[in-house]
Amino acid sequence: MRIIVFFIFLIFLIKPFKIYANEPFLAPYIENLKIKVKEDLKNKVPEDYIENIFSSPQLTYLPNIMIKSLTWKEEKLPYYQFLEKERIERAKAFLEENKTLLEDIEFVFGVEKEIIVAIFLVETDLGRKTGNFPVINVFYSLALSGEKELFEKFINNSEISLDDGNTKKRWEKRSNWGYKELLYFIEIAYLNNWDPFSIKGSIFGAFGFPQFVPKSYLIYGYDWDKDEKIDLYSIPDSLASIANYLKKEGYKKEESLEYKKRIIMKYNISEPYANTVLAIAENLKN
Fold first, then answer.
1. Radius of gyration of the chain (CA)
2. How far is CA 72 from the centre of its chain?
3. pTM, whole model, 2 decimals?
């Protein structure tokens, strides 16, 4: 018993990046989460599918995901890199190579092809960088971090304190959001017959070429090539999904740049992001 307690103490002390689901101290938290997921996905996803997820050795708790989420500084991201000559040239080449497809998508959705390619460039460097985090582990970690007793073990001596009212509100909001996205992802994985641990994405769970979270996949994902599946790792479906997102949020080609910026900020709530997308698009038109 003393060995187990000492081992748990060491785990908390070093603040590990990964804690596998078979760690004994996680068991009650995982069990509570599993019961809740089964109840909320009742009649949508079979219980044995959910059981297999929660008993998988690949299920991993990443407490640093929530810590990163609470300390993220969007305005400090180096968006200027996407305006470098080499990237603009690659984006122009991509636009030319896919001109017919992009013109067709622009016609259907009313979103300029340059805006679509600009978002594709910023999100994943034209598909080169889609992320290395198993999406299910990201949302599982955010949801599990909603357990105050558990999460506080990993924020000792850090800049985060749940005694701070604003931090606590953001922590609760991120945990609730992560739990809902976990439900969406499990349902999507089941319906698409995916290995739920095979889908990799960003540190905050966005995946595919357009970097959609699961809810966005359900709302904005578009099957452009009509193969009866939405594949966010396919160029046609991805570009159409980006355009569909903007159209559904109210994008109009004839509107002002300020109006377009507000719509693009619904794709990513960041003014530097939206300004960069518009600047790239302008470069692509020239």
1. 21
2. 14
3. 0.91
